[in-house]
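Can't paste images in this forum, so I'm doing it all in text. The chain is below; anyone willing to post the predicted structure tokens underneath?
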Amino acid sequence: MHRKRRTKILATLGPASSSKEKITELFNAGADLFRINMSHSSHDMLNDLVATLRSVEKEVGRPIGILADLQGPKLRLGEFKDDSIEVSTGDKITLDLNEAPGTQKRVHIPHPEIIDALEPGHRILIDDGKVTLKVLKASKKDALTEVVSGTKLSSRKGISLPDSDLAVSSLTEKDYADLDAALAAEVDWIAISFVQRPEDVAEVRKIAKGRAGILSKIEKPQALTKLDDIIELSDAIMVARGDLGVEVPIEQVPGLQKQMTRACRRAGKPVVVATQMLESMITAPMPTRAEVSDVGTAVFEGADAIMLSAESAVGDYPVEAVTMMDKIATQIEQDENYDGIISAQRSEPEPTGADAISLAARQIAETLNLSAIVCYTGSGTTGLRAARERPSVPIIALSPVARTARRLSIVWGLHCVVTEDANDLDDMVDRACRIAASERFAKPGDRVIISAGVPLGTPGATNMLRIAFVASDGQSGI
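Text version of the structure:
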């Protein structure tokens, strides 16, 4: 089977979607890869889900990507004596390191790094921005704040610090343990939460040692100031609009989404747009019109993947949510404006032979109206370069490495097939034509263009193009 769309769908697993039967339904409805949220998953649950996904993968005969999403540091208020207090604009509240229960005048902050980072003028957002505090005075022991907006502070509510650069790793002790467990389970992607700086990515990359792709979630304003460096060190980026929309003015989120999507497209790195895309389908069988437009905007922008969170993890209609996202993406890609918008945002190729070959493959395929671009990719680099061009014809990515095919399941336009490595150039061309026919991208008499690196098996050495006819037996013609 192959999808009728090029934008990929990432579905989050949870209580509503953890059984083998439900995961199979989600895949058949359109999910291309699956997210395991380590905030809500034990290591036993992780291993069970990975085993189930691999079983489904074997049955459907298609590579399925798995993403393990690390929780990251969760910053919270301490406890109040009566569980909560009522506040009004202008009230003064001291944040300190005293573990005594909070009162109307003060509250414990169980994170010394927060007190260290606060400076006069910094904002503190509590409970997803329901309460905003402004720092008036700060020392190494406490900080005097003023209530700017909000009416109630409660025990253990989350804290966001849009103006403060915390001198703390994006990984907690739990994250280190979860990372080791995810790598041992051989997941395909590791998502890092609350990335602030390139060093956060480098830390995970050092541990992963290439065993999984590294996806950086951009949900902190501090990351935006170092976006290019973070993209360079990452294998993919997620526009995590939920937490980002708390820490920056919410009206800036659409522009930032476009900025990050285009930056990733220029760099040839996959970009995922996430959070609240079909939020109403958690409890309703149909989305709102605004949600449909939101998904459509991400597809028009050329995002590699669009993600479902609670909709598929805990919602009442997980399969319907995936089905709806599939319908929206498919319809948008058939819109008469789609190819023009995608082409207008296409970046100039890098001055390398591999990029020039990928550009030529797209131009030749579109000029000659070929049925498909077939690329051989062992490491995934050739597939990424082909997708960066956003061609109007299908891309078939052939790889002898199952883990590469699974990792590429997040990439725009790539139909990944695991196949044995070619013995020589003739075998490579024959295999490409046979698979293009068997996967129903080409029929006898059609032509395909093949890109690869010669000598065969050389990582990243895309240096060859070949046009071939698909013969009646599925082999290459003259």
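The domain at 84-160 is CATH 2.40.33.10 (M1 Pyruvate Kinase; Domain 3). The radius of gyration is 24 Å.
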